[in-house]
Amino acid sequence: MNSRKTNRIGIAIVEHQRQFLIGVRPSGVALAGFHEFPGGKCRAEETAEACAVRECKEETGLDVIAVNELLYEEHAYDHADVKLHFWLCRPKQSLTELKDCDLKGFHWFPVESLPELQFPEANARLIKLLVSSYSDS
After folding, report:
1. What secondary structure, in 3-state letters, does 57-94 show?
2. For 6-134, CATH number?
3. pLDDT in tens, 109-135
4. How crowded is residue 64: how many other Cβ atoms within 10 Å of its Cβ?
5. pLDDT below 50 — which residues of the chain?
6. Residues 118, 81, 73, 134: what is their CA dihedral angle, to the nearest 10 degrees?
7. What is the 3-state secondary structure (H, E, C) of the chain?
8. pTM to 2 decimals?
9. For the chain, which residues make up each domain, given as ranges?
10. 95 HSE (CA, 13 A, CB side)
């Protein structure tokens, strides 16, 4: 039996015009250097949906609306066990306002570029889902 704590994680998959909001994990943290979507640990009584919205605001400054849960994934990393709730989100801001946003190190990436980025292993099914759902082909 695994005695490690499992972390529930809410992740905002922010989509706008077939582009996704992505950052790079900083040095000194688990999975440093990997690409990531905004997100983090859920608080005790917080839903994964509310967590994804809150974490996106904290990490990027962007207000988003959660649309639906795209995918749920459980994964055991060396550093932790995680339950990942990937939530499709849309920006509340208009296109004009988005262009002026300082996203705190996060950037918009077109869906076609997602397979070329280095994401943590637990994101593999999500990336395939996004590419198949949002690509032109």
Report:
1. HHHHCCCEEEEEEEEEEEEECCCCEEEEEEEEEEECCC
2. 3.90.79.10
3. 999 999 999 999 999 999 999 999 998
4. 26
5. 1
6. -20
7. CCCCCEEEEEEEEEEECCEEEEEECCCCCCCCCCEECCEEECCCCCCHHHHHHHHHHHHHCCCEEEEEEEEEEEEECCCCEEEEEEEEEEECCCHHHHHCCCCCCCEEEEHHHHHHCCCCHHHHHHHHHHHHHHCCC
8. 0.93
9. 6-134
10. 3
> In the numeric block, which tokens belong to residue 128?
């395939």
Amino acid, single-letter form, for residue 137? S
Name the amino acid, one letter, at 19.
Q
Write out the two tokens for 31: 């999975």
Q: What are phi and psi of 110, to 5 degrees?
A: -65, 150
